[in-house]
Structure formats: structure tokens, C-alpha cells
Amino acid sequence: MTTAVRPQMAVCPGCVAAPNGAVDDAPTEARLALSLPTIHCQACISTVERGLNAQPGVRSARVNLTLKRALIEADPDMKAADLIPVLEGLGFEAHELDIAALSATETDKAGRELLMRLAVAGFAAMNVMLLSVSVWSGASDATRDLFHWISAAITFPAILFSAQPFFRNAWQALRVKRLNMDVPIVLALVLTLVTSLWETSLSGEHAYFDAALTLTFLLLAGRYLDHRTRAVARSAAEELAALEVPRALRLDDGGEPAEVAVGDLAVGDHILVRPGGRMPVDGQVVEGQSELDRSLLTGETLPVFAEAGSVVSAGEVNLTGPLVIKATAVGKESSLHQLADLVAIAESGRSRYTSLADRAAKLYAPGVHILSALAFLGWYLFTFDMRVALNIAAAVLIITCPCALGLAVPAVTTAASGRLFKRGMLIKDATALERLAEVDTVVFDKTGTLTNGTPQADDFSALSPQDQQLAYALARGSDHPLSVAICNAAEAANVAPAPVTELREIPGFGTEAMHDGTRVRLGRAAWVGAEAGSKTAAFLDRGDGAAQSITFSDSLRPGAAEAVSALLEAGKEVWLISGDTDGAVRDLAQRLGITNWVSSALPQDKSARIMGLSEAGQHVLMVGDGLNDTAALAAAHVSISPASALDAARVASDIVLLGQDLSPIAEACSVAQKATRRISENFRIATLYNVIAVPLAVAGLATPFVAALAMSTSSITVSLNALRLR
Amino acid sequence: MSVLSYLIPISLLLGGVGLVGFLYTVRSNQYDDPEGDARRILSDEWDDHPKP
After folding, report:
1. Which of A105, A182, A521, A667 has its CB 3.0 to 4.6 Å from that of A169, i.e. a possible disulfide?
2. What does the pLDDT look like over A649-662, one tens digit per residue?
3. Which stretches does UniProt call biased (Basic and acidic residues) (chain B) (predicted)?
């Protein structure tokens, strides 16, 4: 293994410019990882791999379709940012992943350990089953005893190794005087092994070695599926989180910037925030002029002007000019952390949810113990034969043992989350599907969720060709979102830029240049001498006095309209709650046909509104991306955030949308409902089987053959039922 | 029944070979991308000769 180079993030130009930490030894190659949410077939694999391998500097590239990810080994100076445009050129959406966070979950130790135990249990079960079948088909006397002894010799070490997770869990539960699903399992295993060994030593007819092993194998299979689903989600979620680097540029006494961790900043520090960078702390601007994007904090789409004296909050993005801020609140006091506290409060309410499996276990574990104890007692009083009574008790325990119950939930969740993962949804929480199935109200955030959060020029084509050319030329001088929107519109319309000279950006105001000897400007209303309207607009001053306005609106995220109409069709109540202004919210609500909308909502208002809905007995699904949504996301019954959301929002939500498309949300609701229906069907199948088999076992009619047959039939039925979801 | 004294060790041995084989595939990361492996078989790249 070579030292993994942390790929530098393009998220924060400040960090890219700064030297890249201490690297112990010079790496000979870089390992990069890209998330590819839209790949789905062999053709995609070939295209991506061929495209990446054709890039100079790439040594090898391999696509993992299961994780929708490409792993690239490249020359040490290769950056993921160089490869993303290549893939976008091929028609694939690509996001960079931090390899350091990736390697933490790449070697999935727990999963591998489970798989080993599963393999050993499977191997032993097959061998013992071979011997058992010979016994069932008539092997007798010494041969039978020999087979039983060989079975015992295989079974004991195999169970000791593979059933360890159950032993551990059961012990943990018993130590705190609780019962969980593992206690009856362990009791059944131990009792079966002891009685079978006893029977064997007395040359008895029935031994349950094969049943004990099959039970372990099937239960491990359930555990493994469960683990697998969660491991995939967890690793992908951690990768998403690794995209944001908590660093800041602190100015020392001489005014030189030095990179420090955000946690080391103190009140009074002067911090340089470059254009494109995020405010690390709350503070006051002491130097520079710029515009701030507050959309992640408040949901406002209009950038806010900032100059010396303006107050800024952590989480805002600096758009145009460099700013020096003086920290007024850091760490716990900053507004970012106060929002995090809101999240913690809201989350404590959600943990009250008990999953279907827990509810089943609560009924099941004591029931089985009582039943088995009664069988033992009854037979002992009836025959006064300890051997018979113990055998019956063991048969009852093994027959009722929850293979089907253990598979009922994980088989379904694996199938359902696999299906949703293919559609670009990541289920982070184990009970998220069950909660999603109960949803009857959906609350959307506006900026960044239903809309892209990036403006598009509405009336660019209405401008005269000269104005278009001039606006394009001026817009090229800035990275401001509105300028970018003008450039995009101009490029789409094949407009050539007008010849200008002395093009320069005045941070916080706009760009100006000389054109045919006159000064032309593109920027804020007040700066070019125009009246500001209610809509987001930039103004073009052609030097003749009359300023021409260009208005912007937020573009709709793909699939937003489909998602909303599908949810409305499914009879769900849809709300739009945004921190943006009245007009913008009303426009969007009308466009999407949403009748319930709230504008200018503060973070507290959002979560209060959701708690109000919950108290009225509604189950709320919150879809949001901003910091102002985090409290609401945590307060909701279940929550979804897009991959572009802030880290805090993703952590607070149960499901992450990996792609740009919103339409899978409606599908997720129906899949979740189907999944919950399958789970309860599975519980019913498992119960039905117990209802048939338990009387047989109590009556002493259950031979090892009957037990094996019943156990595998019910497990297979349950798994097949789960597969119907695919 | 003396044949059993050969057959049982042989069956255990063969089963053991299978188990060791499986453990080897687990350790060499062959189950990391089941979805992709299932699709890769459809690719006509490297049909004539193996990937160098």
C-alpha cells in the first residue's frame, strides 16, 4: 500500500492554495475515489473505465458498480477535480470522495468476520447434514453412533467459532438483566448441544446437531445481510461528510495568513475568507467588500452585500472579494453550534421509535422461554424422566427458534435499500424505511432542495444583441453566481462577447470595463444608478445613462415537479417552508401546485411547525439541505437531504439523495410501504409456522428431520417473499 | 461398512477444500462488487486474451 494522498478539495479555494499538511514520505502515486451516482450497467462501466484510463496520468481505474464508485490510481499530482470534467463530458455525474475517509470503511472488518463465521457454519452444516441424512434414511446401531460422534466433533468447534456474536450479545443483555432475541437463540443452541451429546453417549436415536448448525447458519445469514446494508450506507455517508475541510486562514500580527484548524480559532482573531470560502466563525467584517450567500443558513437566494462593519455568521459563503473578519463568537457560541444544539434536542424525541423487529422480539423472547419451560415441566411431571423432558424442551426451543424471524426484517430491508440505492438513495438509518412507510405529510425546503440554489437568467434572450454581447463580456470578469448565470445563458445562445478593455471586478458591486471609449458596468442596482425591483436582478449600464435590468430566478431541480405531483397524487399533504422572501416562495409554490406554503421562516419556526404537525398526529417527512433545515430535519419523523446539502444537514437526516434528481422521493415512499407490508407478512409466515410446529414439538413428535424441514422451509419462504420487492 | 473409513475423511477433506477456497476469495476482496462482476461478464473487452 502506498501512502494515500489526501486529494485537495476544490470546495474551498483557500485550502487549495495552502500547502497540503505534512506528508511523511513522498507518495509515488495518488489514489482517488469518485462517486458516480448515475452508472447502472456494463456499458457505463466500460465507458467510465475507458475514459479514465485514456487520461494521461491515470495508471488504473476500476469501477465498483455495487457502491457506484470509481477507484483510480494515478500520478501523485493528479487531482479528482481534473477527472470530474472528463466524466461529465462522457455524460456521468461525478462527485469527489475523500480517500482518507474511504479507507476507514473500505476494509470492513466486522463484515468480513461475519462472512467467515457464516462460511464455517455453512461448511459444518453441510457436512453434518450429510451424516444426518444417512441416519434419517436408516443407519442404525454402531454406524448411527459413529455418525453422531463425528457430527458432534464437527459441530462443537464450529458452533464455538461461528455463534460467538450471539453469545456476546446474549451475555451483554443478560448482564443488564434484559432479554433480547439472542438469549433464546443461545439457550436453544446450548440446550440442543448438551442434550444431543447426552443422547449420543447413550446411543440414543435423535441428535439435533444439524439443526443447531443450520440455525446458526441461517441466523448469521440474516445478520450478515443486515450488516451489509448498513455498512454500505455508512461508508457512503462518511464519504459525503469527508468533503468539507474544517480549516481557516488566520492572519498573524504581520498580516500573513496561516492555515489553522477551525477549533483553534479564538475570539478577536482576524480571519481571511477568500471568495468561495465559507465563514468559519461568527464575526464582523473589518476589511474588504463582497457579497455573501446566506442560502444555506436562511434559504434566501439573493446575495447580501457585506463591507467593513457588517456582521457575518458561520456557514455563510463569501462570493466575490476577499474579506477579513474579526471573530466575535467561536466554537460553541457560534450560530452554527447553536443550530446543532437544536438538532440534539429534536433528535432525543426521535429515539423513542421502536422498530418492528424490536417489538417482535419483546413478545417473542419471554414467550419461547415460558413455552419451553412448561414443556419441560409437563413432561417431567408426566414421565419423571429427565432425559425425555430435556429432549422435548430442546426440541421446542429449536423449533421455535427465530430463523424466520431473524431473516424477516434484514431480507426485506436489504432488498428495499438495494432497490432504492439503485435509484440513487442512501438509507442511513436502520428504521428509516419503517418510518418512511408511515409518512402522510411531506415538507420541502426551497433553496437547494426543490431548486438548485443557482440562479438562471430569465430574460436574457429579450435583450438586444448588443446588450447580450456586452453583458456576456462583463459577466466573464466575475465568478459571482449571477455572472455565471449570464455566461451560461450567453453560451447557450451562442453569443460572442463584445470587445472590452480594462475589465475589472469591484467586489460587492459588479464588474466594469471600457467599451468603445465609454465606461460600461454590470452590477447592483444602486451602483449603476437604477431602481432595485423585487426580483433578483443585475443591471447593465451601457454608458448612456439608462440601465437595462436582467432578472433571475432559481432553476428547478430535475425531478422536483414529478416528485411533488406524485406525492400529491399519493394523497400526501405537501408543504413548502422556506426562509426566502414571500414572492419567491409563492412563485415556486404556484409552479409546483403546492397549496401550503410558509415564507421567511427562521430555523426555529421550521422545526416548531414540524413539531406542531407531529403533535397533530401527522407523520412528517422533511426534505431539506441547509443549516436552517437541520433542526427541522431532526424533528421530523423521517428526513431526506440531497448530497449537496451541508454536512450537518446530512448527519441529521435518515436518507441521502445521491443524484441531482428528486423524483425517487415519491418512489421511496411507496417502496417503504411495500417493504413494511412484506416485513409484517414475514412475521405472519414465521408465526404460522410456529403455530403448526410447536404443538408437534410439545407433543414429543418433532424428530430432528421434522425440525430441519420446518426450519428451512420457513426461512426460504421468508427470503423469497422479501425478494418480491426487487 | 469399511468403505466409510475412506469416504468420511474424503468428504470432510473436500468440504474443507471448499471452505479454504471460500476464505481465500473473501480475503482477496472478491465480494466487494457483486453487482459489477455480474455485469462485467457481458463486456467483450479482453475476450481474446486476458487483461495484461
Report:
1. A182
2. 777 778 888 777 88
3. 36-52
**Residue B43 dihedral angles phi and psi, to the nearest 5°:** -75, 140
pLDDT score of A13: 38
- Residues contacting residue B13 through CB under 8 Å, at least 6 positions apart: none
Q: Report the distance separating Cα A271 and Cα A258, nearest Å.
A: 9
Tens of pLDDT, residue by residue over A512-547, are 888 888 888 888 777 777 776 666 778 888 777 677
Task: Flag whether pLDDT at A401 surpasses 80.
Answer: no
Q: Which of A66, A119, A150 sits opposite B35 (nearest CB)?
A: A66
- The answer to pTM > 0.80 is no
Q: In what order do the strands lie in the sheet with A257-261?
A: A257-261, A247-251, A270-273, A323-329, A282-287, A311-312
| pLDDT band at residue A159 under the 50/70/90 scheme | very high
Tell me whether B4 touches chain A (CB under 8 Å). yes
Q: Which residue of B has its CA nearest to A126?
A: B15
Instruction: Give the Cα separation of A576 and A599 in Å (integer).
Output: 8
Q: What is the pLDDT of residues A39-88, one digit of tens each?
A: 888 888 888 888 888 888 888 888 888 777 888 888 887 777 788 888 88
pLDDT in tens, A227-240: 877 776 666 666 55
The answer to whether the CB atoms of B18 and A123 lie below 8 A apart is: yes
Contact criterion met (CB below 8 Å) for B32 and A64: yes
Residues A622 and A576: their CA atoms lie apart, in Å, by: 10
Q: What is the DSSP string of A355-391?
A: -HHHHHHHHHHHHHHHHHHHHHHHHHHHH--HHHHHH
- Give residue A46's region: left, alpha or beta (phi > 0; psi -120 to 50): alpha
pLDDT at A23 over 60: no
Contact (Cβ atoms closer than 8 angstroms) between residue A671 and residue A419 = yes
Nearest CA in chain A to B11: A127
Cell (9 digits) for A136: 434419517
User: And the C-alpha cell for A354?
Assistant: 421502536
Q: Nearest C-alpha of chain B: how many angstroms from A113?
A: 10
Active site positions of A, annotated: 445
Nearest to A649 by CA among A661, A659, A636: A636
Helix (H) or strand (E) holding A59: strand A58-64
Spell out the alpha helix ranges (H) of A54-137: 80-89, 99-106, 109-136
Give pLDDT, residue B1.
63
Nearest alpha-carbon partner for A71 in A82, A80, A83, A63: A63
Domains of chain A as residue ranges with CATH? 13-107 (3.30.70.100), 247-333 (2.70.150.10), 425-452+557-672 (3.40.50.1000)
Q: What average pLDDT score do residues A334-343 get? A: 60
Which residues are registered as beta bridge partners of A290? A306
The CB density around residue A377, as the number of other CB atoms within 10 Å, is 12
On whether any CB of chain B is under 8 Å from the CB of A153, the answer is: no
The three grid cell numbers given for residue A561, joined into one nine-digit string: 415537479
Contacts 24+ apart (CB under 8 A), A125-131: A125/A210, A125/A213, A125/A214, A125/A216, A125/A217, A126/B15, A127/A154, A127/B11, A127/B12, A127/B15, A128/A154, A128/A155, A128/A209, A128/A210, A128/A213, A129/A210, A129/A213, A129/A214, A129/A708, A130/B11, A131/A210
- Please state, as a whole number, how many other Cβ atoms lie within 10 Å of the Cβ of residue A533: 11
Convert the pLDDT of each residue in A214-269 to its tens digit: 888 988 888 888 787 777 666 666 655 544 445 677 887 777 777 776 667 778 88
